[in-house]
User: What shape does this take?
Amino acid sequence: MWVYFWGFLYSNYFRYWLKWILRLLTRKCELQRVFDGSKAGAQRTLSIEHSLESSKNKVLRNAVYVEETEVEKCVRDVMREKKIEQKDTGFKTNLQLSLLQISGYKKLYLNVEDLRKVPYDSDNEEHEEQLIKLWNLLMPHENLKARITKQWCDIGFQGDDPKTDFRGMGLLGYFSKHYTSEARQILSRSNHPTLGYSYAIVGINLTEMAYSLLKSGALKPHLYNAVSGLPRMEHFHQFYCYLVYEFDKFWFEEEPESIMHFNQYREKFHEKIKGLLMDYNAILTLQVTKKP
Assistant: This one.
């Protein structure tokens, strides 16, 4: 109760007067102070984002939704509103970079959300090609005997037609294409006699985890640190690859008694990732040693 009350007072009263006093003392607005006091990365961009969203100025509040093509104009408008000289190229460059990251994150979420809504269409050649390509990448020495076959169970699907799990196919395919040897290694490990799990189903489950972290904003520290500019779908795919690789290691380190405890360990892994993302310096990328 007291925490909520204090937060209300700070946001609506104290913050405004504190900013006013600091501006008198430093002769700089809050945005300038953030850029002067922090290096490029998540801590700076998150502070800029909070400052803009909390502003009473409509131009500043709308800046976090700016389109990529309008960023330069938006920066000029913000500088005009805050009475910052247009020749201050350092401020202009820093704000432009921050706005690309902030608005890019929002756009990335919308793009991922749109992809989630795409149903599987067996008449869509692209959808069918993704299925077959996934099989060929993971099982290069075994031909698929038919489109609908129990062979799909060999890579972790539950039935003879994986179309019902299409929502995760794109991410599974990306991992298998760009980290083929790692994907095959994890598939092999997933067939362990006592610690095995359904590779494809777990992979699809991890797509939901990646999506939830993106939606909640928890993924911002990673993307703001890892991407110097506009976060794109490829960066989300790369984070998913990290999740798949790290979950496999986590699963075998934990040694669950049974696959029946999957949800328990999935949640434990989820909490571990969220903990890592609370670090302003977090960069969660898949690091693998390539053989010479």
Observations:
- The two ends are 59 Å apart (CA to CA).
- The first helix runs from residue 2 to 26.
